[in-house]
Amino acid sequence: MSEQKTVPYGSWRSPITSELIVADMIGLSGTDIFNGDIYWQELRPKEDGRIAVVRHTPNGDTADLTPQPFNARTRVHEYGGHTYTVRNSTLYFSNYRDQRLYRLDPDESPQPITPEADFRYADYVLDQGGRFLYSVREDHTGTGEAVNTLVKVNAGGDDTGGEIIVSGNDFYSSPRLNPDGSMLAWLTWNHPNMPWDGTELWVGEVDEDGSLSNTQRVVGGPAESIFQPEWSPDGVLYFVSDRSNWWNLYRWVEGKVEALCQMEAEFGLPQWFFGMSTYAFESPRRIICSYSQRGKSHLASLDTETLELEEIETNYTNISGVKASPGLALFLAGSPTENMAVVRWDLQNGKEEVLRYSSESKIDPDYTSIPQEVEIPTEGDQVAYGFFYPPQNNDFAGPPGEKPPLLVMSHGGPTSATTPTYDAKIQYYTSRGIAVMDVNYRGSTGYGRAYRQRLNGQWGVADVDDCANAALYLVNRGEVDENRLMITGGSAGGYTTLCALTFRDVFKAGASRYGIGDLETMVVDTHKFESRYLDNLVGPYPEKHELYQERSAINYTDQLKCPMIFFQGSEDKIVPPNQSQTMYKAVKAKGLPVAYLEFEGEQHGFRKAENIKRALDGELYFYSRVFGFELAEPIEPVPIDNL
């Protein structure tokens, strides 16, 4: 091994380039198994963010099912999810451009089975006879708030857009049929709750014409979150509930609820997307499941008779999308040294097979920073959590006495979490000599309901305190340079970033990706799913009008003291561009260094390869100009005002 060169932090040459990151990067989701075939979805930045449905057959063949230009993506709740289902080699899916449901028979082209109307569909299940597709439908044909219902759509084509079978509540998800098709289960909830606040699990009898009768609530309410109802192969209804503070597994037997495996672990996830899955039935007696403890995933097998939970040893720290069939488990997984992948796990011999990586780029340990789990002392004698990534590059070392810059990352949601899984965008920084702290501030998932609810009424305060205290914790440990502390975040993480830069004096620069600058605008100008989200996080509106103003960085730009860069999609419906534009103009008027990049055609999150690359490089370039360190590789300059 050659001797390390002494080079200032931030100026190290790295093989982890933005070109490499976007060259073959894809997003993986939507795992499933039908009749021995394995399916998943791929979000492809190189195809303008198109999502394709892919099939892998037992003989090893892998091919796209959905042809270009079809994009299997739904806009229900704007975040979508569970956009397809399969029966006897026939694929049913939502197409992004027109939001119609399509049927794709073998050797045929996709044909629409719903009319041209302002309907959106998600979360499908086909009945036993293949007659009806049960689905969540979001109706935007009216002038007011969208109307969400459960509908049955004729699988051969339906000019009506589907017949409503359940209605009256604000939201629905997870329609699931029992094995003989005689019962349908589903979840429902109402404003102002989000699905991780309070949901109800219902069941109904399926009549001959596909309609429902004798419906009843099984469990749940405004203070209990139910997640992923599933019927076992022998017809027992299972689900996940956080009634014990932790999302644990339960089942409904003869009108009574039975706990299966009570432990301080999370078997559930925040239902931002449809079709999320943490467990599946290998057989009536065996469940394959994933659970999280302190931000790290585990894979396990649960015996439904003895209720014995046996961990399945893996190297993975992030496991989701769990599906199973006899002798087989399928899931998405990654680790600190492995990209996310579609993994096929043979339950008979413990052998695994990676069917698809999110990136085929080889991970070199010489340039890979391994995350360190950190407990962060924070306000009120409480703790927050995070993962610290020190600079790592075997070719370089920082000058004696110099400490690296620190980039604090604030995840979105805010009801979400970061995991200790390989992220090339983090390694992009650490391999150049910039330390990273990825924070699971109070309100994050994976640490129980009580920890999740510590953000209630405190958004813009507790999360900001935790990110600031994470940076100060590392400064006090002597790990990083207190004069080069940066913070970055997207969406809700962008809100935390803007508040941290406005209301605290800890950070010296920051980047907001489609961040929320004005909470009032978020309330009156966002989509239905999140329109009452802030009732719990901040307070009811307009009763708490003054509090919304106090927590909005856009109203206190006079307190800004450091440089900022903004990234925004021109078609973002969740955080409209005017929020970032207004913040940018205010910072510019103060005479502080500021930059603004808007990407035409992008929405909430960037899906096109060229825009992902431009945002990644642009943020690094901005920091290099602000803090005066030379970059080892040339980067397309970003226009910076007041510099």
Written description of the protein model:
The mean pLDDT is 95. By secondary structure, the chain is α+β, with helices and mostly antiparallel strands. The longest helix is centred in the C-terminal third of the chain and has 19 residues, at 609-627. The chain contains ten helices and 38 strands. A hairpin with a 7-residue loop joins strand 11 (132-139) and strand 12 (147-154). It has a domain at 371-627: Rossmann fold, CATH 3.40.50.
SSE layout:
Elements: E1 5-6, H1 18-23, E2 27-34, E3 37-44, E4 50-56, E5 62-64, E6 84-87, E7 90-94, E8 101-104, E9 111-112, E10 119-126, E11 132-139, E12 147-154, E13 163-166, E14 171-177, E15 183-189, E16 200-206, E17 212-220, E18 226-231, E19 237-241, E20 248-253, E21 256-259, E22 279-283, E23 286-293, E24 296-303, E25 309-312, E26 318-325, E27 328-335, E28 338-346, E29 352-357, E30 372-378, E31 382-389, E32 396-397, E33 406-410, H2 424-430, E34 435-440, H3 449-453, H4 462-476, E35 485-490, H5 492-503, E36 509-513, H6 519-524, H7 534-537, H8 545-550, E37 564-569, H9 577-589, E38 594-599, H10 609-627
Parallel strand pairs: 1-32, 33-34, 33-35, 35-36, 36-37, 37-38
Antiparallel strand pairs: 2-3, 3-4, 4-5, 6-7, 7-8, 8-9, 10-11, 11-12, 12-13, 14-15, 15-16, 16-17, 18-19, 19-20, 20-21, 22-23, 23-24, 24-25, 26-27, 27-28, 28-29, 30-31, 31-34
Helix pairs in contact: 4-5
